[in-house]
Amino acid sequence: MELWVKINGEKKKYQGSFGVVMENLIKDGKGKEVQILCMHASPRERRRWKREYRWYDKDILKTASAIARWFYLRDYRKIRRRIKELKKRAKYIVKGEIYYNSKIMKEVEALKEKLSEIEKKLEELKV
After folding, report:
1. Which ranges of the chain have pLDDT less than 70?
2. Helices (H) and strands (E) in the chain, counts
3. How far apart are CA 86 and CA 65, in angstroms?
4. Given CB 3.0 to 4.6 Å as the disulfide criterion, which of 22, 75, 81, 116 pairs with 68?
5. pLDDT number for residue 96
6. Do strands 97-100 and 91-94 pair parallel, antiparallel, or not at all (unpaired)?
7. Contact 7, 36 (CB under 8 A)
8. CB of 41 within 8 A of CB of 49?
9. Is the pTM of this model over 0.85?
């Protein structure tokens, strides 16, 4: 995706994935006047942008925030599902007691750290 915007009279180009472009737009445009000049994206991304743009009464920053939040929530849910799956696989029973595989539980801890990072980013995205 490629997005040209004018932030307080200064032209700026954002390029990359849809979620990253929206996140960078929020960071740079927070509290400023933002205008869209040009957008090059796949038809799917354009449709999503237009739908969200209309939903938020043509407010660019709220639209970008909603789209970026959607990407982070998608990743958040994906990681939670993965943690649940790993915990189920790590569990084993010996003589009536439940134990967990330590290697898999280390991976679960790493995923939990990623979850906390995503939660922080979600808090930052609020406009």
Report:
1. 127
2. 4, 5
3. 31
4. 22
5. 78
6. antiparallel
7. no
8. yes
9. no
Q: Which of 28, 95, 105 lies closest to 60 in space, CA to CA?
A: 28
SS3 content of the chain, % helix, strand, coil (to 5): 60, 20, 15
Whole-number pLDDT of residue 15: 95
Tell me the three-class secondary structure of the chain, residue by residue: CEEEEEECCEEEEEECCHHHHHHHHHHHHCCCCEEEEEEECCHHHHHHHHHHHHHCCCCHHHHHHHHHHHHHHHHHHHHHHHHHHHHHHHEEEECCEEEECHHHHHHHHHHHHHHHHHHHHHHHCCC
Tokens of 64: 């970008």
